[in-house]
Protein backbone atom coordinates (compact mmCIF):
# COMPACT_ATOMS: atom_id res chain seq x y z
CA UNK A 1 0.00 0.00 0.00
CA UNK A 2 0.95 3.50 -0.89
CA UNK A 3 1.72 6.41 1.40
CA UNK A 4 -1.21 8.78 1.97
CA UNK A 5 -0.73 12.38 3.07
CA UNK A 6 -2.55 13.43 6.24
CA UNK A 7 -4.39 16.20 4.40
CA UNK A 8 -5.78 13.58 2.02
CA UNK A 9 -6.87 11.39 4.95
CA UNK A 10 -8.63 14.32 6.60
CA UNK A 11 -10.51 15.34 3.50
CA UNK A 12 -11.59 11.94 2.20
CA UNK A 13 -13.33 8.84 3.45
CA UNK A 14 -10.71 6.20 4.15
CA UNK A 15 -12.71 4.23 6.74
CA UNK A 16 -11.68 0.54 6.87
CA UNK A 17 -8.85 1.02 4.43
CA UNK A 18 -5.26 -0.02 5.08
CA UNK A 19 -2.88 2.89 4.64
CA UNK A 20 0.69 3.97 5.23
CA UNK A 21 1.39 7.40 6.65
CA UNK A 22 4.71 9.05 7.43
CA UNK A 23 5.49 12.03 9.55
CA UNK A 24 6.99 13.48 12.69
CA UNK A 25 5.71 12.80 16.19
CA UNK A 26 4.30 15.88 17.85
CA UNK A 27 3.13 14.27 21.09
CA UNK A 28 2.56 10.88 22.64
CA UNK A 29 0.14 10.17 25.48
CA UNK A 30 0.22 6.73 27.02
CA UNK A 31 -1.58 4.71 29.62
CA UNK A 32 -1.21 1.02 30.49
CA UNK A 33 -3.37 -0.18 27.65
CA UNK A 34 -2.73 2.17 24.78
CA UNK A 35 -0.64 5.05 23.37
CA UNK A 36 -2.00 7.93 21.33
CA UNK A 37 0.50 9.46 18.92
CA UNK A 38 -0.15 12.79 17.20
CA UNK A 39 1.64 12.68 13.85
CA UNK A 40 2.21 15.62 11.51
CA UNK A 41 3.56 15.40 7.96
CA UNK A 42 3.42 19.09 7.02
CA UNK A 43 0.52 18.71 4.59
CA UNK A 44 -1.90 20.24 7.11
CA UNK A 45 -1.83 22.12 10.39
CA UNK A 46 -3.82 19.18 11.79
CA UNK A 47 -2.13 16.16 13.30
CA UNK A 48 -3.42 12.65 12.69
CA UNK A 49 -4.09 10.45 15.67
CA UNK A 50 -2.45 7.04 15.77
CA UNK A 51 -3.64 4.45 18.23
CA UNK A 52 -0.79 2.15 19.26
CA UNK A 53 -1.58 -0.99 21.26
CA UNK A 54 1.43 -2.23 23.27
CA UNK A 55 0.18 -5.79 22.73
CA UNK A 56 0.70 -5.39 18.99
CA UNK A 57 3.78 -3.15 18.87
CA UNK A 58 7.10 -3.82 20.53
CA UNK A 59 8.08 -1.96 23.66
CA UNK A 60 11.27 -0.78 21.96
CA UNK A 61 9.41 0.84 19.08
CA UNK A 62 7.06 2.64 21.46
CA UNK A 63 10.02 3.84 23.51
CA UNK A 64 11.60 5.37 20.43
CA UNK A 65 8.33 7.05 19.49
CA UNK A 66 9.21 10.39 21.06
CA UNK A 67 8.51 13.99 20.09
CA UNK A 68 10.42 14.79 16.89
CA UNK A 69 11.00 11.20 15.78
CA UNK A 70 10.03 10.34 12.21
CA UNK A 71 7.73 7.37 11.70
CA UNK A 72 6.31 5.18 8.99
CA UNK A 73 3.00 3.80 10.22
CA UNK A 74 1.01 0.93 8.68
CA UNK A 75 -2.56 0.41 9.77
CA UNK A 76 -6.30 0.69 9.31
CA UNK A 77 -8.45 3.83 9.42
CA UNK A 78 -11.32 3.57 11.91
CA UNK A 79 -13.88 6.04 13.27
CA UNK A 80 -12.43 7.68 16.35
CA UNK A 81 -13.60 6.61 19.81
CA UNK A 82 -12.89 10.01 21.33
CA UNK A 83 -15.75 12.51 21.41
CA UNK A 84 -15.62 15.20 18.74
CA UNK A 85 -12.67 13.62 16.96
CA UNK A 86 -12.43 12.51 13.36
CA UNK A 87 -11.04 9.22 12.24
CA UNK A 88 -7.86 7.69 13.52
CA UNK A 89 -5.37 5.07 12.47
CA UNK A 90 -4.92 1.85 14.40
CA UNK A 91 -1.28 0.93 13.96
CA UNK A 92 -0.45 -2.61 12.86
CA UNK A 93 3.25 -1.81 12.43
CA UNK A 94 5.49 1.20 13.05
CA UNK A 95 8.93 1.70 11.49
CA UNK A 96 11.14 4.33 13.10
CA UNK A 97 12.62 6.25 10.16
CA UNK A 98 14.60 8.63 12.36
CA UNK A 99 14.92 8.80 16.12
CA UNK A 100 15.03 12.09 18.05
CA UNK A 101 16.76 11.74 21.41
CA UNK A 102 14.36 13.47 23.84
CA UNK A 103 17.32 14.65 25.91
CA UNK A 104 18.73 16.54 22.95
CA UNK A 105 15.85 17.43 20.63
CA UNK A 106 15.31 21.20 21.04
CA UNK A 107 11.58 21.29 20.23
CA UNK A 108 9.47 20.19 23.15
CA UNK A 109 5.69 19.86 22.99
CA UNK A 110 5.17 23.31 24.50
CA UNK A 111 5.10 26.89 23.29
CA UNK A 112 8.55 28.19 22.37
CA UNK A 113 9.33 31.87 21.91
CA UNK A 114 9.83 33.11 18.35
CA UNK A 115 13.26 34.43 19.38
CA UNK A 116 14.28 30.94 20.47
CA UNK A 117 12.89 29.41 17.28
CA UNK A 118 14.82 31.92 15.17
CA UNK A 119 18.01 30.44 16.65
CA UNK A 120 16.97 27.03 15.32
CA UNK A 121 15.67 28.06 11.91
CA UNK A 122 16.66 24.62 10.59
CA UNK A 123 14.04 22.97 12.83
CA UNK A 124 11.37 25.62 13.35
CA UNK A 125 9.47 24.55 10.22
CA UNK A 126 8.34 21.56 12.32
CA UNK A 127 6.22 23.77 14.56
CA UNK A 128 2.54 24.61 14.03
CA UNK A 129 3.25 28.32 13.68
CA UNK A 130 5.94 28.00 11.02
CA UNK A 131 4.12 25.22 9.20
CA UNK A 132 1.14 27.57 8.90
CA UNK A 133 3.29 30.54 7.85
CA UNK A 134 5.07 28.64 5.09
CA UNK A 135 1.90 27.07 3.73
CA UNK A 136 0.30 30.54 3.56
CA UNK A 137 3.48 31.91 1.96
CA UNK A 138 3.27 29.22 -0.69
CA UNK A 139 -0.41 29.94 -1.38
CA UNK A 140 0.33 33.65 -1.77
CA UNK A 141 3.19 32.94 -4.20
CA UNK A 142 0.93 30.68 -6.23
CA UNK A 143 -1.83 33.33 -6.21
CA UNK A 144 0.62 35.92 -7.54
CA UNK A 145 1.41 33.78 -10.57
CA UNK A 146 -2.23 32.86 -11.05
CA UNK A 147 -3.38 36.47 -10.96
CA UNK A 148 -0.90 37.67 -13.54
CA UNK A 149 -1.20 34.60 -15.75
CA UNK A 150 -4.99 35.00 -15.86
CA UNK A 151 -4.53 38.64 -16.87
CA UNK A 152 -2.13 37.83 -19.71
CA UNK A 153 1.05 39.07 -18.03
CA UNK A 154 4.35 37.32 -18.78
CA UNK A 155 6.75 36.24 -16.04
CA UNK A 156 10.21 37.67 -16.77
CA UNK A 157 13.33 36.45 -15.01
CA UNK A 158 15.51 39.47 -14.44
CA UNK A 159 19.19 39.10 -13.52
CA UNK A 160 20.40 38.68 -9.95
CA UNK A 161 23.84 40.05 -10.80
CA UNK A 162 23.77 43.48 -12.40
CA UNK A 163 25.97 46.48 -13.03
CA UNK A 164 23.30 49.01 -12.04
CA UNK A 165 21.61 50.28 -8.91
CA UNK A 166 17.97 50.68 -9.89
CA UNK A 167 16.97 52.69 -6.85
CA UNK A 168 20.14 54.78 -6.86
CA UNK A 169 20.36 54.48 -3.08
CA UNK A 170 23.85 52.95 -3.02
CA UNK A 171 22.72 50.06 -0.81
CA UNK A 172 24.16 47.27 -2.93
CA UNK A 173 26.09 44.11 -2.12
CA UNK A 174 29.16 43.93 -4.34
CA UNK A 175 29.86 40.85 -6.42
CA UNK A 176 33.47 40.13 -7.26
CA UNK A 177 35.95 37.33 -7.97
CA UNK A 178 38.91 39.57 -7.16
CA UNK A 179 41.15 38.62 -4.28
CA UNK A 180 40.18 41.41 -1.95
CA UNK A 181 43.24 40.88 0.23
CA UNK A 182 45.40 41.76 -2.71
CA UNK A 183 43.27 43.48 -5.38
CA UNK A 184 44.69 44.88 -8.61
CA UNK A 185 45.04 48.66 -8.31
CA UNK A 186 44.76 51.00 -11.27
CA UNK A 187 46.73 54.20 -11.81
CA UNK A 188 44.25 56.37 -9.91
CA UNK A 189 44.80 54.23 -6.81
CA UNK A 190 41.37 52.55 -6.93
CA UNK A 191 40.58 48.86 -7.33
CA UNK A 192 40.89 47.93 -11.01
CA UNK A 193 37.80 45.92 -11.93
CA UNK A 194 39.01 45.25 -15.53
CA UNK A 195 40.43 41.91 -14.39
CA UNK A 196 37.29 41.06 -12.41
CA UNK A 197 34.99 38.31 -13.75
CA UNK A 198 32.64 40.70 -15.56
CA UNK A 199 35.43 43.20 -16.27
CA UNK A 200 33.51 45.83 -14.33
CA UNK A 201 32.01 46.50 -10.93
CA UNK A 202 28.87 44.47 -10.29
CA UNK A 203 26.40 43.96 -7.48
CA UNK A 204 23.36 41.95 -6.47
CA UNK A 205 20.17 43.48 -7.81
CA UNK A 206 18.11 45.78 -5.59
CA UNK A 207 15.14 45.59 -7.98
CA UNK A 208 14.26 43.98 -11.30
CA UNK A 209 12.38 47.07 -12.41
CA UNK A 210 14.74 48.51 -15.02
CA UNK A 211 15.02 45.19 -16.84
CA UNK A 212 11.27 44.75 -16.33
CA UNK A 213 10.71 48.04 -18.15
CA UNK A 214 12.79 46.82 -21.08
CA UNK A 215 10.63 43.70 -21.30
CA UNK A 216 7.36 45.64 -21.02
CA UNK A 217 8.42 47.73 -23.99
CA UNK A 218 7.98 44.67 -26.19
CA UNK A 219 5.77 42.21 -24.34
CA UNK A 220 3.31 44.77 -23.01
CA UNK A 221 2.43 43.40 -19.58
CA UNK A 222 5.12 41.62 -17.57
CA UNK A 223 5.97 40.85 -13.98
CA UNK A 224 9.04 39.71 -12.10
CA UNK A 225 9.06 37.65 -8.91
CA UNK A 226 12.51 37.11 -7.58
CA UNK A 227 15.00 37.76 -4.81
CA UNK A 228 16.34 41.26 -4.31
CA UNK A 229 19.12 42.42 -2.03
CA UNK A 230 19.66 45.55 0.01
CA UNK A 231 22.63 46.37 2.17
CA UNK A 232 20.67 48.92 4.16
CA UNK A 233 21.63 48.69 7.78
CA UNK A 234 18.05 48.72 9.07
CA UNK A 235 17.68 46.30 11.91
CA UNK A 236 13.87 46.51 12.03
CA UNK A 237 10.98 44.06 12.06
CA UNK A 238 10.16 45.15 8.47
CA UNK A 239 13.55 44.92 6.71
CA UNK A 240 15.53 42.03 5.30
CA UNK A 241 18.85 42.13 3.44
CA UNK A 242 17.46 39.48 1.07
CA UNK A 243 13.77 39.67 0.23
CA UNK A 244 11.50 38.67 -2.61
CA UNK A 245 9.81 41.28 -4.73
CA UNK A 246 7.00 41.14 -7.27
CA UNK A 247 7.30 43.85 -9.89
CA UNK A 248 4.68 44.17 -12.60
CA UNK A 249 5.43 46.63 -15.38
CA UNK A 250 2.83 47.65 -17.94
CA UNK A 251 3.17 49.49 -21.22
CA UNK A 252 0.37 52.03 -21.89
CA UNK A 253 -0.60 52.31 -18.19
CA UNK A 254 -0.81 55.69 -16.48
CA UNK A 255 -0.57 56.36 -12.74
CA UNK A 256 -4.24 55.70 -12.10
CA UNK A 257 -4.26 52.43 -14.06
CA UNK A 258 -1.28 51.43 -11.93
CA UNK A 259 -3.13 52.19 -8.69
CA UNK A 260 -6.20 50.27 -9.86
CA UNK A 261 -4.10 47.23 -10.74
CA UNK A 262 -2.19 47.28 -7.44
CA UNK A 263 -5.38 47.47 -5.39
CA UNK A 264 -7.10 44.72 -7.37
CA UNK A 265 -4.00 42.52 -7.20
CA UNK A 266 -3.58 42.87 -3.42
CA UNK A 267 -7.24 42.09 -2.83
CA UNK A 268 -7.03 39.04 -5.09
CA UNK A 269 -4.02 37.43 -3.44
CA UNK A 270 -5.37 38.05 0.06
CA UNK A 271 -8.77 36.56 -0.91
CA UNK A 272 -6.98 33.59 -2.40
CA UNK A 273 -5.20 32.90 0.89
CA UNK A 274 -8.46 33.37 2.82
CA UNK A 275 -10.17 30.78 0.66
CA UNK A 276 -7.35 28.29 0.37
CA UNK A 277 -5.66 28.44 3.79
CA UNK A 278 -8.67 28.41 6.11
CA UNK A 279 -7.19 26.13 8.80
CA UNK A 280 -3.82 27.84 8.80
CA UNK A 281 -5.31 31.34 8.97
CA UNK A 282 -7.71 30.27 11.72
CA UNK A 283 -4.70 29.00 13.68
CA UNK A 284 -2.74 32.20 13.03
CA UNK A 285 -5.79 34.30 13.95
CA UNK A 286 -5.87 32.61 17.37
CA UNK A 287 -2.16 32.99 17.75
CA UNK A 288 -2.34 36.71 16.95
CA UNK A 289 -5.21 37.16 19.41
CA UNK A 290 -3.18 35.46 22.15
CA UNK A 291 -0.20 37.66 21.36
CA UNK A 292 -2.43 40.73 21.37
CA UNK A 293 -3.88 39.91 24.78
CA UNK A 294 -0.38 40.18 26.30
CA UNK A 295 -0.06 43.79 25.09
CA UNK A 296 -1.06 46.99 26.83
CA UNK A 297 -4.65 48.04 26.09
CA UNK A 298 -3.69 50.99 23.85
CA UNK A 299 -1.38 48.84 21.75
CA UNK A 300 -3.86 46.12 20.93
CA UNK A 301 -5.17 45.90 17.38
CA UNK A 302 -8.74 46.94 16.85
CA UNK A 303 -9.42 43.95 14.63
CA UNK A 304 -8.42 40.33 14.76
CA UNK A 305 -6.35 38.89 11.91
CA UNK A 306 -9.21 37.31 10.00
CA UNK A 307 -11.38 40.38 10.42
CA UNK A 308 -8.55 42.62 9.21
CA UNK A 309 -7.97 40.50 6.10
CA UNK A 310 -11.66 40.52 5.25
CA UNK A 311 -11.83 44.25 5.81
CA UNK A 312 -8.97 44.93 3.40
CA UNK A 313 -10.51 42.76 0.72
CA UNK A 314 -13.94 44.38 1.04
CA UNK A 315 -13.14 48.09 1.33
CA UNK A 316 -11.85 50.57 -1.15
CA UNK A 317 -8.36 51.86 -0.35
CA UNK A 318 -8.08 55.53 0.56
CA UNK A 319 -6.26 57.49 -2.16
CA UNK A 320 -4.65 60.83 -1.47
CA UNK A 321 -1.65 62.87 -2.49
CA UNK A 322 1.48 63.41 -0.45
CA UNK A 323 0.53 67.09 -0.15
CA UNK A 324 -2.87 66.18 1.32
CA UNK A 325 -1.22 63.69 3.67
CA UNK A 326 1.19 66.33 4.95
CA UNK A 327 -1.83 68.51 5.81
CA UNK A 328 -3.48 65.66 7.70
CA UNK A 329 -0.28 64.90 9.60
CA UNK A 330 0.56 68.52 10.34
CA UNK A 331 -2.88 69.11 11.85
CA UNK A 332 -3.01 65.81 13.71
CA UNK A 333 -3.08 65.58 17.47
CA UNK A 334 0.04 63.46 17.25
CA UNK A 335 1.89 66.39 15.72
CA UNK A 336 0.37 68.97 18.06
CA UNK A 337 1.04 66.94 21.20
CA UNK A 338 4.51 66.01 19.88
CA UNK A 339 3.75 62.30 19.95
CA UNK A 340 5.64 61.76 16.69
CA UNK A 341 9.35 61.23 17.02
CA UNK A 342 9.76 63.33 13.87
CA UNK A 343 7.30 66.22 13.84
CA UNK A 344 5.85 67.23 10.49
CA UNK A 345 6.60 70.88 9.85
CA UNK A 346 7.36 71.41 6.18
CA UNK A 347 6.25 70.08 2.86
CA UNK A 348 9.03 68.04 1.27
CA UNK A 349 10.10 65.82 4.15
CA UNK A 350 10.15 62.07 3.71
CA UNK A 351 7.52 60.25 5.72
CA UNK A 352 8.71 57.92 8.48
CA UNK A 353 6.91 54.69 9.24
CA UNK A 354 5.30 56.32 12.31
CA UNK A 355 3.60 58.81 9.96
CA UNK A 356 2.55 56.12 7.50
CA UNK A 357 1.06 54.08 10.30
CA UNK A 358 -0.71 57.08 11.76
CA UNK A 359 -2.46 57.69 8.43
CA UNK A 360 -3.49 54.05 8.06
CA UNK A 361 -4.19 52.98 11.62
CA UNK A 362 -5.38 56.15 13.36
CA UNK A 363 -6.71 58.50 10.71
CA UNK A 364 -8.23 56.67 7.75
CA UNK A 365 -8.34 53.22 9.37
CA UNK A 366 -7.90 51.48 6.03
CA UNK A 367 -5.15 50.87 3.46
CA UNK A 368 -3.91 54.10 1.89
CA UNK A 369 -2.51 54.79 -1.57
CA UNK A 370 -0.29 57.87 -1.28
CA UNK A 371 0.58 59.55 -4.56
CA UNK A 372 2.56 62.41 -6.05
CA UNK A 373 5.54 62.71 -3.73
CA UNK A 374 8.15 65.49 -3.98
CA UNK A 375 10.65 64.53 -6.66
CA UNK A 376 13.60 65.07 -4.31
CA UNK A 377 12.70 62.09 -2.15
CA UNK A 378 11.94 59.65 -4.97
CA UNK A 379 13.92 57.69 -7.57
CA UNK A 380 15.16 59.17 -10.86
CA UNK A 381 12.86 57.14 -13.12
CA UNK A 382 9.54 58.51 -11.83
CA UNK A 383 7.47 60.63 -14.17
CA UNK A 384 7.54 64.35 -13.41
CA UNK A 385 4.22 66.04 -12.84
CA UNK A 386 3.29 69.36 -14.46
CA UNK A 387 3.74 71.24 -11.17
CA UNK A 388 7.52 70.83 -11.52
CA UNK A 389 7.75 69.72 -7.88
CA UNK A 390 6.23 66.29 -7.65
CA UNK A 391 6.45 62.93 -9.43
CA UNK A 392 3.77 60.36 -10.28
CA UNK A 393 4.79 58.05 -7.43
CA UNK A 394 2.55 55.80 -5.38
CA UNK A 395 3.18 54.03 -2.10
CA UNK A 396 0.60 51.69 -0.63
CA UNK A 397 0.46 51.68 3.14
CA UNK A 398 -1.07 48.80 5.13
CA UNK A 399 -2.19 48.56 8.75
CA UNK A 400 0.46 47.05 10.97
CA UNK A 401 2.97 47.11 8.14
CA UNK A 402 3.42 50.61 6.74
CA UNK A 403 4.74 50.63 3.16
CA UNK A 404 3.90 47.39 1.38
CA UNK A 405 4.08 48.61 -2.25
CA UNK A 406 6.18 51.28 -3.96
CA UNK A 407 5.64 52.21 -7.58
CA UNK A 408 5.14 54.95 -10.15
CA UNK A 409 4.38 55.96 -13.66
CA UNK A 410 7.76 56.08 -15.39
CA UNK A 411 9.33 59.07 -17.11
CA UNK A 412 8.96 58.17 -20.77
CA UNK A 413 10.22 61.51 -22.16
CA UNK A 414 13.90 61.22 -23.12
CA UNK A 415 14.83 64.86 -22.52
CA UNK A 416 13.23 65.05 -19.07
CA UNK A 417 14.63 61.69 -18.02
CA UNK A 418 18.20 62.46 -19.12
CA UNK A 419 18.07 65.80 -17.37
CA UNK A 420 16.79 64.27 -14.14
CA UNK A 421 19.46 61.57 -14.24
CA UNK A 422 22.17 64.17 -14.63
CA UNK A 423 20.76 66.17 -11.71
CA UNK A 424 20.81 63.04 -9.58
CA UNK A 425 24.29 61.91 -10.70
CA UNK A 426 23.03 58.76 -12.38
CA UNK A 427 25.54 57.89 -15.13
CA UNK A 428 23.64 58.33 -18.40
CA UNK A 429 26.43 56.78 -20.55
CA UNK A 430 26.36 53.54 -18.58
CA UNK A 431 22.57 53.46 -18.73
CA UNK A 432 22.44 53.83 -22.54
CA UNK A 433 20.35 50.66 -22.76
CA UNK A 434 17.71 52.10 -20.43
CA UNK A 435 17.59 55.38 -22.29
CA UNK A 436 17.29 53.51 -25.62
CA UNK A 437 13.73 52.53 -24.63
CA UNK A 438 12.95 56.26 -24.59
CA UNK A 439 14.82 56.82 -27.85
CA UNK A 440 12.99 54.13 -29.77
CA UNK A 441 9.23 53.70 -29.54
CA UNK A 442 8.81 55.22 -26.11
CA UNK A 443 5.36 55.14 -24.52
CA UNK A 444 3.77 55.92 -21.18
CA UNK A 445 4.19 52.98 -18.83
CA UNK A 446 3.98 52.26 -15.14
CA UNK A 447 4.67 49.60 -12.55
CA UNK A 448 5.13 48.82 -8.90
CA UNK A 449 6.99 46.58 -6.49
CA UNK A 450 5.35 44.53 -3.75
CA UNK A 451 7.63 43.34 -0.97
CA UNK A 452 6.55 39.71 -0.75
CA UNK A 453 7.56 39.22 2.89
CA UNK A 454 5.61 42.31 3.92
CA UNK A 455 2.55 40.75 2.26
CA UNK A 456 3.17 37.44 4.07
CA UNK A 457 3.62 39.39 7.31
CA UNK A 458 0.25 41.04 6.80
CA UNK A 459 -1.63 37.87 5.90
CA UNK A 460 -0.13 35.73 8.68
CA UNK A 461 -0.36 38.40 11.36
CA UNK A 462 3.21 37.67 12.42
CA UNK A 463 5.06 40.54 14.05
CA UNK A 464 8.56 40.19 12.63
CA UNK A 465 9.66 39.80 9.01
CA UNK A 466 12.34 37.32 10.13
CA UNK A 467 9.51 34.90 10.86
CA UNK A 468 7.95 34.81 7.39
CA UNK A 469 10.99 33.79 5.34
CA UNK A 470 12.57 30.39 5.93
CA UNK A 471 16.15 31.57 6.31
CA UNK A 472 16.24 35.29 7.05
CA UNK A 473 19.23 37.43 6.10
CA UNK A 474 19.68 40.46 8.34
CA UNK A 475 22.72 42.44 9.56
CA UNK A 476 25.02 39.95 11.27
CA UNK A 477 22.91 36.92 10.34
CA UNK A 478 23.66 34.42 7.58
CA UNK A 479 24.28 31.17 9.44
CA UNK A 480 23.81 28.77 6.58
O1 LIG B 1 9.89 51.03 -2.63
P1 LIG B 1 10.92 50.13 -3.24
O2 LIG B 1 12.34 50.41 -2.93
O3 LIG B 1 10.64 50.20 -4.80
C1 LIG B 1 11.35 49.58 -5.77
O4 LIG B 1 12.28 48.82 -5.60
C2 LIG B 1 10.79 49.82 -7.14
N1 LIG B 1 11.84 49.47 -8.12
C3 LIG B 1 9.54 49.01 -7.34
C4 LIG B 1 8.92 49.19 -8.68
O5 LIG B 1 8.34 50.24 -8.94
N2 LIG B 1 9.01 48.23 -9.56
O6 LIG B 1 10.62 48.62 -2.83
C5 LIG B 1 9.36 48.05 -3.14
C6 LIG B 1 8.82 47.29 -1.96
C7 LIG B 1 8.56 48.15 -0.73
O7 LIG B 1 7.34 48.81 -0.81
C8 LIG B 1 8.61 47.11 0.38
O8 LIG B 1 7.37 46.42 0.46
C9 LIG B 1 9.65 46.14 -0.12
O9 LIG B 1 9.76 46.31 -1.52
N3 LIG B 1 10.96 46.36 0.50
C10 LIG B 1 11.49 45.55 1.44
N4 LIG B 1 11.01 44.46 2.03
C11 LIG B 1 11.80 43.85 2.95
N5 LIG B 1 13.02 44.29 3.30
C12 LIG B 1 13.55 45.40 2.73
N6 LIG B 1 14.77 45.81 3.07
C13 LIG B 1 12.76 46.09 1.75
N7 LIG B 1 12.96 47.18 1.00
C14 LIG B 1 11.86 47.33 0.24
MG1 LIG C 1 9.67 52.57 -1.34
From TrEMBL:
It is found in: Cytoplasm. Its main location: cytoplasm. GO terms for biological process: asparaginyl-tRNA aminoacylation. Homodimer. GO terms for molecular function: asparagine-tRNA ligase activity; ATP binding; nucleic acid binding. Keywords: Aminoacyl-tRNA synthetase, ATP-binding, Cytoplasm, Ligase, Nucleotide-binding, Protein biosynthesis. This is Asparagine--tRNA ligase. It catalyses: tRNA(Asn) + L-asparagine + ATP = L-asparaginyl-tRNA(Asn) + AMP + diphosphate + H(+). The keyword Transcription does not apply. InterPro entries: Aa-tRNA-synt_II, aa-tRNA-synth_II, aa-tRNA-synth_II/BPL/LPL, Asn-tRNA-ligase, Asp/Asn-tRNA-synth_IIb, NA-bd_OB-fold, NA-bd_OB_tRNA. Residues 134-472 form the Aminoacyl-transfer RNA synthetases class-II family profile domain. Its EC number is 6.1.1.22. Pfam families: tRNA-synt_2 (PF00152), tRNA_anti-codon (PF01336). Transmembrane segments: none annotated. It comes from the Bacteria. Belongs to the class-II aminoacyl-tRNA synthetase family. GO terms for cellular component: cytoplasm. PROSITE patterns: AA_TRNA_LIGASE_II.
